[in-house]
Queue: 4 jobs
Job 1
Amino acid sequence: MLRRFISSGVIALAVGSVWVMYLRAGAGESSFAFQPATDGFQATVLDCSRFIEAPTGKHGFVTAKGGRFVFQDGTPVRFWGGQMDAGGTKEQLGYTLRRMRRQGIDITRQHGLENLNARDAKTSLEYDAAALDRLDYLIAKLGENGIYLILDLDYPLNFHFRPGDNIPALPEGGPALGAEFVDDKVASILQQRMADLFRHYNPYTGKRWADDPTIAMVEVLNEDSLFFGEVAKSFHPELEDKFAAWLRNKYHDDVGLKRAWSVDGKPPLAEGQGVENQERVPLLHNGDFTEKYLTAHPEQKLRGEDQLRFCEELEERYFTSSRDAMRRAGLKAPVSGTNWQAHGFPTRVHMLGQSKLDYVDRHGYWDHPDGEGNLKWRIATARFHDLPMIKAVDPDQDRLKYLGVENLVIEKAWEQVLGMPMTISEWNTCLPNEYSLEGGGLMAAYGLLQGWDGALQFGYFSGDFRRSLGEGSFDMLGNQPQILQFPALAAMWYRQDVKEAEVVAESVYDSESVYRWTEDRKPVPLWAALVGKVGYRLDGQARKPVVKDVRRYWDAQSLTARSITGELSWNASAGVVHIDTARTQAVIGFLSAAPHELETVSLKSPNRFGAVWVTAMDGMEPVRSARHLLVTAVGPARNTGMEYERTDQMSRLGTPFWRLKSEGAGPALLEAISGELRIKSGRAEQMKCWTLDVVGRRRDPVPLRVVSGEVVLDMRPEHKTVYYELSVE
């Protein structure tokens, strides 16, 4: 069981019987002011456009084949990116896209297509020419830069139907959460919008959207599921009518229904509930699908399982018919349903429906901001946990909790459907969590281990570096310690420096067991996702799951999981991850916990928390022989004058929320990483070193030492940098 205690600025975690204590992060005397810089697009060691072929479409469309994404000519492809905001002028957009490519981003995502309707549109099928022009131009410029696009077609929280749509349950128009699964008119309108968009001609490319390979993937629906939220109230009668019809088709009458649903002779129906004489059967609340509820209400078991079947059929019908509508319009790109989940174990039922499409997409966050209404999106008013994910590994946990209360890497790994392409189209370890810099390295390294096909951080919302931390929790350019790691992450990701692991455990469900009212307990502890590949198998036939003995890769005393590839190590007790490959060597987490010895790199640092990367930047050449090395060394950041304080409010983690007593202002202060970094290199005697600015321009020379064939870099606070270039001239 995971227990935490926070007092007087000291945080303690107890995992099992092991207690780990650490002081809070913060900008200290070793911090330096972040200095943004405009990119002149000169050739520098930070330029990751070398990994991104432009324009898009040289190998045809992206396809889903053999459980992976490949282009039509068979060339494999893997995506690393961030959702963007296409606002600003066309000139600003051009600069932003060039910067994205230089930072190693080959894919972005757009939702917000609800804004394609003019303000005075009478129906949802009347489009705004200016809004379409913005998207047309974006698609064209993305293609020129080799950056692909995921289109998310419907964001139901923001989409408002119009009175002229003539939806009986929504005569005045407005939002209609979940109605697409229930109401045929709603579904037909949304699917007509899909067809209209892919038949739309883009004057900047001379192609219909359906014929443009820049559109790599399409999502039908953003963050909605019949297994999670509530269907809009005005559609409840229609939903219950559909459920009654479904039950009547299966059981014929009330006698058959009561016989089928009775548990120990007790039918779970109240007076007036049934399938005859215009009766209805209310649906159980999604939050009721727990072992605790079933223990208190055992008579609901069979009723609940039928509800799961019914909802899965509704979801699957909508998603597959939407894909069919887009295919008829000419779409060639792979299609996914949605990226959401259910409350608890029905997620696996929801995933069954997702597995009927072309690929699986998920969303996930660590320390997603909390609070009231729109106040939670701003760091100045959000509540947050301020805990490091790197320590969030429970040795005994065997089922997922969801909703941002557990290790993001582990959760997403167990959500993949084995044998299908997998993307994480939104993820973030969010501001103002002081440990948020950890996210990129952990998601990239373990995403490679798991074989994920794409990961997009949410989101790229500024055109370039911000001087201060972002006002919102998700702005990549306003979380400088995160975005500054992108060159190292991109090189590792595209070269696949971390090998994909074999499957070590899977959750297997057949066409009956997937609906049973049982918790989704995994056959091994969840930390197995840090050892090898894991996920669902949603097969039609019952069979034994693959379950390998991974105990030799786990040290219970230090809470350390080693990957079966031998390249990754996650020590949750110390809060340190090591990435140890030929071309990428990295230490992420609590740097001062101990000296760090990797195959090619050793590090001693007094810094409490940070990330240090050594990246070979000569194609596929390893660190030992590369002529050009990039050292990336980042610590936490705070705005000038930023202050944290603990609240008296408790979170779902069982710990107090924190908030900002003062948001502070720019410049952001970055903690300088100091210490001794040793690199084994056959070119040690020839190496020279410079500090770099944030776009890769050389600033000041830094002396190096050579000891026994190792080049030694003494990182000092006075260097005021996160980048060092070591090169043989």
Job 2
Amino acid sequence: MSAKSILEALRAVARECQAAAPSFSAEQAVQGLALADEIRAVFLPPTPASQAADALPTLLQLLPMELLSVLLSQLDTRDLARLAATCRSLWRDAPTPPPRPWGLVETELRRRAEARGLAIGSSLPEGAASWVPYLVASDLRDALRREALFAVCGEYSIFVDSEGRLLTCGRERRGELHLGHAVDPEADPAGPRYVGPPTLVPSVSGRRFVSVATCRFGYCLALSAEGEVYSWGNGRYGGLGHGDEGDREVPTRIESLSRIERIATGGNAMSTAIDENGRLYTWGCAFFAGDHFRTTALGYAVDPETENQLNPKRVDALAHDRVVGVALGCDYTLAVIDAGSVFSFGYSRGMLGHGSSKRELLPRQIQALAQTGRRFVAVAAGDRHALALTEAGEVYGWREWPLMEDPSERVPHRIVELVGEQVKLLYAAGMSSCAVTESGELYSWGYFSDNINHLGHGVGAVQRTPKRVERLSGVQVATVAMCPTHTLVADGDGVVWGFGRRCALGLNDEPSGPEVVVEEPVRIRALRVRARKSPPPVVRLSG
């Protein structure tokens, strides 16, 4: 093969790599850079032994190690991986048994893992080839599952505080077990139970949690730092995932699930989990009222002799794809895979994004989103509307018709009111939505419920288009949880604000006191959640 043909082949491969770059995982990117280094070495003269290849680049070498550590702490995970791949001295993944030297990048990644409450051992997990790619992938996955630091529904809220502990507050009525606290046998079973301010759930006080979810059908999920899923509350329809329909007073581990990265609840009493390999599991309600065709939103057919899926079951139709996000609406499900495609399944009513009312038993790709040429990274689902977020921060949405006037609303279209804003997070609940931009501004829109201010714009009429929440001016919003009765907001330091139904925020002084609505965001001072961005290490410089 001639040198000219070899160069042409390399150019073709380079063009293909450039086109496919957005779909590479962090570990694949590191491997690709390593291969590029090998190719570069073919065309460069060998480095003399006197010029040690493991020396730091000249500019970095001039920095003291303390300052270099601070510099690395300010990089995001992907940039940290790229730097390690281009500088082996920063990587230094020595193959020697412990104790072994850590490179600066590995040291920084281990520090971030420790700050998140994750224990990183001295032995590589099975299937991992090298420490830096493993720690990079772990950090990126954890960024996804840390999204739900609190969850809200009706008259209660659930939190993961800065130490990874599980707390709840609010009110539960007869037959409800949302709060996760054992019921006092001497309490009036017919009366409501109140917990507030945010109070530690004692039965799991020894566990560290990273994410929570709640369903309006009366149950909750919590994800531990070890990837275990706990559930409690109303067991009807099998949403708890324990193989029965019994209630659970306190959080109980779902034994059939392990190494889980994300959890979600919603829809028609359904639950979902995504494991570290991107496999999607669903369980819970397997029918719709009056629907004899039994088209479910679970992503697979169910036994006609059963009404509900009582144990988590894998969605085999997506077995060849890595699922990175899922959202449950009212009787339908959305899933996004790492390649950037969005799938939908369940009972339609125009909510599946295919432009029709046809039901879909198995996941079907939404072609209207595929035709945009964009790579999608997240989805959100409300009762009668859905949203999808692109890698570039663009928002697409669609909604049910004839509830809305235009039947074209059944097909995803870009939300023009958010053009020019780079959105990083999307949320939908009931008949309302919100979005958080890269600059930390919160936009919300939708319907009010019982004249309760959960959108942040004050009591008023329907907010049909995205509007910035001016009352949170100056707050760099990092995460949000909303429902038709109240909303929680946290900044990057873990400080929490809330507005809406007062008892659900844990702000009522007396359980028997009058119901009060908080019209403007107030800080919940008894609580701080885990910050979404780890702080830089504390360093002391001499001289």
Job 3
Amino acid sequence: MDPARRHRYLEALGLESWSLRGTPAADPVPAAVAAATALVVSDAPPQDWDALRAAVAGCRKCRLCETRTNTVFGVGPLRAPLMVVGEGPGADEDAKGEPFVGRAGKLLDEMLRAIGRSRQTDTFIANVVKCLRYNALVQLGDGRWERVGRLVASGYSGEVMSVDADGALVRRRVTGWHSSPLGGRRVFRLSYASAKAAGASKTSIQLTGDHPVLTERGWVPVQDLVKGDRIATGQGVSAGAFDALCGSLLGDGHLNAASAHFSVSHSERQADYLLLKAEVLGALTCYVETLEVAAAVGGERRYPIVRFRTKAHRALAILRSQFYHEKKCVPQWIETGLTARMLAYWFMDDGHTRIREGRQPIAEIATCGFDAEDLQRLLTGLAGLGLHGKALRGRIHFSVQDTRKLSEIIAVYVPTSMRYKLHPEVEAQIPFERIRLDEGTTRVLYDEVEAIEVEPGNDQTFYCLDVEGTHNFVTSGGVVHNCRPPGNREPAEDEAEACRAYLERQLRLVQPRLIVAIGRVAAQRLLATDTPIGKMRGQTYHWGPDRTPLMVTYHPAYLLRNPSDKAKSWEDLKRIHRFLQA
């Protein structure tokens, strides 16, 4: 052995002397967050590896799929006699985007070099970080936008916009900053259908294909998105404002195509109702004005109306893509998403209850602008609220019983100026509750994804952030996950079991001459035992039907915390060396 190489490791371990003859290979590698996942080198057929990689990336067997950022699959030389199974990546690994790059990583490199190995030439190590290109825009907590590369470079520790487990848009603190080499990974341009125009193209971000983004079916790596997937845009409005907007769009409201602002007009008699709408939509900044319009084009008789409009907003562009195609339409989600509050706005805009002397009141809603498909969606949405209408001659008509039920459903949302539209008996029994119009948090809106693979280009360094609590952040292309798993903890029993099949498949594909389990978690999982690692060291076990030899040693991070055991790890390395040299 090269004396200088031996001295470097000896110095790293804090040992005074050792000796070693020959040059084998040892390779501790981090694993999937959920459990001890193999990181391997192999000459297995590429299609087998591709199939396994896809299966791991799409795995949803345990709760970690909701918060994970990495399903680890390695990069490095594709042939080696040694397969090393590690425990899991830590903060230092995430900080650079490679496994074992912190203090533990430096120690590991010296261990490898001491026995004639290196991660560059003959050691397979996973790249655990999923990252974004430098100029990807991230939305800060105050609404401003900044490039992720600048946030990483400056160590920005303020707040960014994020999405919590309930789909609410929240502000969360940045707790970590990462830069990572591209390392041969695929690169995609990510955007969504209604994204803001940026010159000749849409606002978007570029990120590695393994980076998970939030969709209606959960967290999905960009490279696994399919046509029809809808991603969380990172934009939204409060639940109260959302219902006011959608109810009004079913009625008299309009979204401008050019600047994505909302406007609506009502007669002077309904001025109080319009002002109430403007109040509910106050976060969008509303302007109110009084005008006079002619009843017919060129007519002399004029009528006063009240109109308001909002400022342009990205969330309104998303809604416009749903409510407008060639003309205004009814989005499909109305079939299951029509709410009582939304119905109240729709009815106050276009509904009417006919009071007939000697007969029971009956209600109807005008639907002149909608086609047969739209009407069916509206009828399905109403049925979800327990109302059964009939579409006829540009209106939806309700029976006597459903007229009363309709008023009972919406009465708490109908203000004083509009209560003349309710069933008289219900109007007297159920009062208006102003607070009910504002209830609900700001929830993220979803839109159809646009993901296109692009050439990586000359920029080979990508960036990412850690975000406290929610583990995700809003970008101009959608909501993306953080780089790191939920805490650097050991996997729970069910999480480890969920990954077992993947690990065993990797072992069968690699068919190594020797397996080395690094750390207690990996050793106990592979050997299905609760024996302490100190008692497992120094022996040769066998794994699987082919009885592949297996040895156990300490994890480098453990050695840093327990320097008294460093000499024992050197004994383990010598045993590994002798076995592979035999």
Job 4
Amino acid sequence: MRLFTVSDILRHFPSRYGEAGLVKAIEFLNDSENAVVFGKISKLKTAKTFKSKVAISTAEVEDSTGKVKIIWFSQPYIAKMFFEGNLVRIEGKVTERKDGLSFSNPKIEKVTKIPEGTSGSLFSGSEGDNPNLSPIYPESRGISSNWIYHSIQKIFSARGGSASGGKGFLDTLEDPIPEKILKKYNLPTLKTALVWIHAPRKKENAEIARKRFAFEEIFFIQLDRQKEKFIAQKEKSFTIKKDAEVKDFVKTFPFPLTSTQNKSIQAILDDFKVGHPMSRLLEGDVGSGKTAVATAASFAAVSTNPPNQDFGNLQVAYMAPTEILAEQHFESFIEYFSKYKVPIGLITGSGAKKFPSKTSQGRTLNCSGPKGPTLAWTKISKPQLLKWVENGEIPILIGTHALIQKTVKFKNLAFIIIDEQHRFGVKQRMKLRRKHDIAPHFLSMTATPIPRTLALTIFGDLDLSLLDELPPGRQIPETKIILSHQREEIYEQVRNELKTGRQVFVICARVNDPDPDKENTLNAKSVKSETERLQSKIFPEFNVGSITGKMKPAEKEKIMNEFKDKKIDILVATLVIEVGINIPNATMIIIENAERFGLSQLHQLRGRVLRSSFKPHCFVFADSKSQKTITRLKSFVNAKNGFELAEEDLKQRGAGDLAGAKQWGVSDLAMEALKNIKMVEAARTEAQTLIEKDFELKKYPLLAKYMTEKNVVHME
């Protein structure tokens, strides 16, 4: 919670609204009911509990029928805001205590008078200072919903200075959204929306206000993205024309391309010819072949000479989110380019590698079976690798975040590929892209299922290509929710699969067992204990290994190589293997405590066993028996692909719970609005129109000022 300015707190919106209870005389109050009372406050004081030092404020409120005690926990400011004899309105839940009825942590506000008919009788409804809905705000330590409510009421009642002519504060606010857009979509003004969202008289008002602010946020994001797109379209980039050569190159692949792979490659090649930098998102389901598309596009770049030269290569940078994935792409590129001997480099936080190797040192790859060529890479120093990259001798450099370090310099960087785009920020992407005189082409890839509305919003500056079909021979996985009494049966099925020479993943939510002395620890299976249990009690005849994100890079590399080389039969892991790990021989995956993972994560995990033509199996174990969990897991079992699953995730859980959603920097209010495709398309259309007609927003100075101050939304 970051509330630094008046604007921050005005845009800290209620998470929900509580219905105001019956307005009652104090003598008619009952235990456990929500009620509103009016009266005179007295005996205000604040103290701290002896053991926990929690601040407790207490008071009494009296009307003509009796008195009731009021207690506030961790809200010491209450006693300073009110004085003996103030008329107040108290709203909250009534609790029966040893010394009688009381209100605990109620909402309190000053009133100028007590409404007629509230003393000595029951009174239903609201009048005077009694709103129908009570806003409830997200809280953090030391900042209660009640405090936020009072702070906002103070702002609402504040008067401006002489410069404003004595107007109320809300009257001085300038609305950044053009009036014609508000009218076009029947959206309230900024002042009206703020009043309706913080002090609604009816639910309809609150809903309309939330709609306005949701539209506003998506509109501003779209403006920022469309501005980026406009800038990119004006920049100069490398012209690459290698259609025929790429067609010959993909014929060397050990598998035929799907129609959507061919379509995506052609879209990229067409973008390469324009002379302006490509900005494209390649969204493909797990195992749909995005790396093959990226490799084909990379070949087009590295087989092109720099401008005004008949020698040398343009360069490619490929950024992956983890060292494991970067290593995997490094080896995949070596295999794809095996007949061309194109130099390829790898740089991560733990070291550097180069292919081809002039020595026999380093790991070797057998690219074409037992009788095929053996290709070797070698470890080298980072300074040496960076020297070769800077002078253009390394056409392809693959790496992690290490690629965006200042020490990494390219001679002719023409093409940037970012894998699993949601793991990186917009600023990180621009940092890699903008440090070159000639803007490189850009391809973002993701296997994380993204709802269409989210893709249109967050990736509004990118053209979209979809890989929505699996390569020939790939089979739909058999996914089952396994009940506790079926565990032994599943283990026997796993044992039979292992006997055929296949391998298995087991996924756990924890690295180590929970600390028994700590409360509220995650009660779930751990990698450590599950590895020991499976090895000693369940599968002693097979080799069980483990891998977690906490291991050192060299240790993780060693484990993954042992799994690839079939020295490990069962690999117990955390989400460290969630993305991109390619082990074709692994055909089964067991997911323990599946309720701990999001649908998108479950789908990614299932994708680890979709890498071959063998029948894949995914077994899901869950401890929770709640209907919500069961419904969610059934969606996972029944979904035909990641795109379908993403839409179901958005529908069931709300966009704020989507995997990675918090990383986008989008508020829960706007994320919820992403369920509304019409709103997203409307915001996108208006943003495109404004930027195309008035890039600098000269006709809309308030909007330009707001965009500059707000800096819109960037995922860090």
